[in-house]
Amino acid sequence: MSITVDLQKSDILGSSRASLFGAAKEVPVDRFVFRLIVSLALCAFLGIYTTGFLRPLLTVISLPLLFFFFYGRAINSPRANFVGQLISLASLIYIFLQRSGPLPGIVLLLQFTSIVLFIQIVFLRSLRALNGALILSLMIILAVAAMNVNFLFPVILTPYVMNFFLILRWISLFRHQAVAGGRVKIDLATKALKGQLVGFFVSATAFLVLCLVLFYLIPRTESLGLASEASKRRLTGFSDTLSLGETGVLEDNPAVVMRIRPIEEKTMSPSIVRRLKSRQLRGTTFARYRSGKWEKGRKRRWFADLRRNSGEVQLIESGFSQRDVHPFEIILENTEPPLIFVPDQTAFLAMGLTHIGVEDDRSLYFVNRVSGSRRYVASLVLNPLEVTDSLVEAIVPGRDTLQFMDVSGIPERVTNLAAVLASGTSTIAQRIDKAMSFLSRQCIYSLEQPVTGERDPVDFFLFENKAGSCEHFASALALILRAMQIPARPVSGYTMGDWNDVGKFFTVRQGHAHTWVEVFFPQSGWVPFDPTPAQVEREIESEVEKFFVTLWETFEGYWFSYVFSFDNRSQIQGFRKIFVAMNERFDFFVSALFHKEYFIVLLLLVVFFGRKLRFIFRKLVRSSNWIPLFYLEWEARLPVDRKPFETPAEFHQRLFAAGIVNEHDFSVLKQVSSLINEAVFNAGSDSRKSFSQAEALLRSIRSK
Amino acid sequence: MLNKARLRFRLSASGKTLLFLAIFLLLAAQNTGNNLLYLMSSCFFSCLIVSGILSLRNLAGLKVDLLLPDYCFAGEDTILRCRIEDRLGRIHRCIGFEEDYLACLEPGSMAIMKTSFRVAARGQFLVKQFRLFSCYPVDIFLTSLELPSDALAVGPVPARLIPELLARDTGGAIQKQSNGKEGDYWMQSHYQEGEDASLINWKISARSFHEWVLIKSVNLGSTNRLFFDFSGLSPERFEASLQIVAGLLLKMRNQPNETFVWANSFRRGYMWVSLQHDMPKIVRWLACLTKAEEQPVAEGSSEAIKISQWVAQA
User: Do residues B186 and B48 make contact, with C-beta atoms less than 8 angstroms apart?
Assistant: First the structure.
């Protein structure tokens, strides 16, 4: 480091701040930091992995990174560096060409950033490159956060953040190293290490608390509506069309769509929970079928004014008693389209809204799209719906049923099958039973979607593959029933999901999406039937696994309730609660302040802790710090104050002259002062031993 | 603040990136209502706040003194020391002073950091813009403690070859140095380079910034009074003559007998200044002396050394 001597101005100048802090740019990165940045990149890649996108790419680039992690150094060759630059350029061109492809823009960005980060790490040479890699990894993490994939995110974020700060810590050492022109290290002496650990925990706690405080206190505004479609959660199967065999990109994603929390204690009993597990949450229906694609029927929607009924919607008018009603709070994530998912046999919906949208098929919609989550209360009737069977001839095509009897797109073989199955039956229930029996006997459940080519997927499912998903079963049943002149429609929605015994709520994930059929009965209306064979779920046998699964779901529950679904409404409620609580505490404090007991307590505190306070004050204002603390503590108890400039020996002399200490004590104090002097001023002496001897002598005087 | 040093801090490149991202994410979160973006934004903000506080605390509460040497000469390495002391009972980490580095300063303890520099020409210099700096705890904030500036007189480059005429060893009693306390009259004096290092009194030296030597039975002996007459010199020769004077004085300073030089003490003008005890004043006079300056004639009896005459003889 150079000190500048300016002879013209007669100045001797220290190194400028720019040269002190900017000297580290070209410092080579050591093995430890290289491994840290590799693990940081792996964390970022894991974040992308949880979104379900780019898995092959991530596998390809993570394996070499693992090798580099163990190898501990980057490739240092100008030619290889040039090749890396070329790969970056090629990936940029590739991404540019893919911009109109099926992948969302944010995924393309992730793809490009991942490749560049990989190249940056493989050819990492200096601190400048390390900074670049840090920023790239941050971009990845932020893009993953923007994609709104919850629950797994914090699990990845925690090691990422720790890794990130560890790298920043090392960069700070690199800066000192560059200025010092040699290696500098963290002081790892036992005492310093203990202090560092304590400091680390204090800082980490402060960071965590501050992070949470800021998270809950940052004012949230309503969405400005400028967000891109990619940043919103789009639920597959709930748009205007439903394509059979279409696997959404978030199919395997464990992302939670909603959480259903029983409000009353009676609902949480195991028997009721078991019954509730078979319930379905209705989303939307489809009417027209054209070669594997279902489309919505007439798009007639009207708005229901809920103000007349205190924000409530009544869905079942009679046939239940209040005792059988079980209210649930449904916390629905901000979804697109803004569907209101309604559990089967819901008697009332309490929305807290002025209007909701209602369609012909009784699908319910939110009128406005808002940011954050939606909360509403659904009151369920536990008893199953009693269906009154009718003859098929009793069905009169009307406005509600006509579009669901459309047979125009039904394949010929399906029509023939329906005719065979319908023979010998006359009522709706009999025909349904025949069709469902056929499906359960002939077809098996499978999520594998073979390529059907130009063949109709339902035809292929029923007569060739004989294996399919819930969409295939529901479509087949609906088409067979329509071919039998019975109004039927497939319904998209969710099953009730997993019950969390600790948090006492159901968790409905993207993977719980389901399709079933609603059949029209002239006397009972639309009745749901699920043709999909029941899946044998793997029972968790190990207690340890059960414990961890419960723990994980509990974490998910809290994360969902207190982080993910936290919105401006929750924030305002929180502020209100804090304000009320503070008001109450303030009132209590004010009332206590004017009580005589308060003054008595204050007086007692002053009497008992006065000496201690005096000691603390002296410790703070002491002019010299060479006098040990135990001596200050001892002198704080004396009736005479030691003057700031007085040495212990001089003070002892004054104490003796004033008659405060006797001759024997004075001789002891002489020893004390000489021991202190020896400990402080004699470099060769054992200061710890001298201090402990002095302290013991003082204690002997104090005990008298 | 416990000293006059000014505490300053600024964001590093990583810190600036983090701040930008925190603000950007906050806007993005406000726009989309995405709670994960709120979380990330608050995470960045809290990181900035916590590391900022830790950075400030790391250098705050330090008593810092820039210790300039009493005197120094041009063309020689000069050590600049910085004494740092904790006054608030806190631990301080990763402190740098120029190329010196201190990993940890324990609570209540003191440390001296140093650097060196070399000045090419004599003069009165202002030592400024020196600072303690730290990147603790992470590379987000860069903290520095700007030290107050101070003046330093740098004497001329001492000539190594002193002309025979001037380089005489005058007589006088030899001080007897000893390591004990025996004797009727003794005193402590600064250790000079070349003296026996085993005679250094470490008990006293440890409490001071200088090394002290016990001098026993000082015989004051005869004293010299030197008056350097710089008149009649060309500007080039004036500088050369200053260098010779500096070399001569350094040599005479090691001699046992007391020497006084007719020099400007600045506060009280020209007077006899002890070479042994007031060397900084003499160096300062040599550092600031200009050719145009008129020297008053020395008071009392003295040995006048007319430099121009000598130069002419040489």
Answer: no
Residues 6+ apart with CB under 8 A from B221: B171, B172, B173, B256, B257, B258
The answer to whether the CB atoms of A145 and B130 lie below 8 A apart is no
- Burial label, B309 (beta-carbon count in 10 A; 0-12, 13-18, 19+): middle
Q: Which residues share a beta bridge with B80?
A: B115
Does pLDDT of B109 surpass 70?
yes
Tell me the C-alpha distance between B298 and A6, whole Å. 35
Whether chain A has a CB inside 8 Å of the CB on B189: the answer is no
- The two structure tokens encoding residue A28: 């080579």
Instruction: Check CB contact under 8 Å for B129 and A14.
Output: yes
Chain B residue closest to A193 (CA)?
A: B104
Kindly state the tokens that stand for A270. Answer: 């195991």
Q: Which residues pair with B101 in a beta bridge?
A: B96
Q: How far, in Å, CA of A436 to CA of A415, rounded?
A: 15
Q: Which residues of A touch B45 (CB under 8 A)?
A: 210, 214
User: Which of B8, B36, B88 best tests the A interface by mutation, with the highest count of A CBs <10 A?
Assistant: B36
| Tens of pLDDT, residues B142-197 | 899 988 888 888 999 988 877 765 655 543 333 444 444 444 445 778 888 777 78
User: Is residue A154 helix, strand or coil?
Assistant: helix
pLDDT value at residue B176: 47
**Which positions in chain A touch B34 (Cβ < 8 Å)?**
145-146, 148, 231, 371
Chain A CB within 8 Å of residue B173 CB: no
pLDDT of residue A537: 60
Report which secondary-structure segment, H or E, holds A63.
helix A55-71
B139 backbone dihedrals φ, ψ, rounded to 5°? -80, 65
CA–CA min distance B277, chain A (Å): 26
pLDDT (tens digit, 9 = 90+) per residue, A540-572?
A: 667 788 788 777 777 777 777 677 767 777 777
Which B residues 124-163 touch A at CB under 8 Å? 124-131, 133, 135-140, 142, 144, 147, 152
Taken as a whole, chain B contains a residue count of 314
pTM for this prediction = 0.60
User: Chain A: nearest CA to B143, how far in angstroms?
Assistant: 10
Cross-chain Cβ contact B46/A227 below 8 Å:
no
* Chain A residue nearest residue B95, CA to CA: A176
pLDDT of residue A253: 52
* B70-108 confidence digits (pLDDT tens): 889 998 888 899 999 988 888 888 899 988 888 888 888
Q: What is the pLDDT of residue B167?
A: 54
Q: Which residues of A touch B39 (CB under 8 A)?
A: 145, 211, 215, 563
How many angstroms separate the CA atoms of A53 and A251, rounded? 11
CA distance A186 to chain B (A): 6
Q: Please name which of A315, A304, A281 lies closest in space to residue A358, comparing C-alpha atoms.
A: A304
- Tell how far CA B27 is from the center of its chain: 52
Name A428's Cβ contacts closer than 8 Å, sequence gap at least 6: A389, A390, A391, A392, A395, A486, A519, A521
Per-residue pLDDT tens digits for B227-271: 888 877 787 788 888 888 888 888 888 777 778 888 888 778 888
Q: What angle do CA B235, B237, B238 make, to 5 degrees?
A: 60
Q: How far is CA A570 from the centre of its chain?
A: 17
Strand B224-229 relative to strand B303-306: parallel, antiparallel, unpaired? parallel
Q: What is the ipTM of this complex?
A: 0.73
Stretches where chain A sits below pLDDT 70 are 1-2, 148-151, 182-193, 221-240, 245-256, 299, 334-336, 369-373, 451, 502, 535-541, 561, 565, 592-593, 611-612, 614-625, 683-684, 702-704
Please give the Cα distance from B257 to B170 (Å, whole number).
8
The rounded distance, in Å, linking the Cα atoms of A205 and B30 is 27
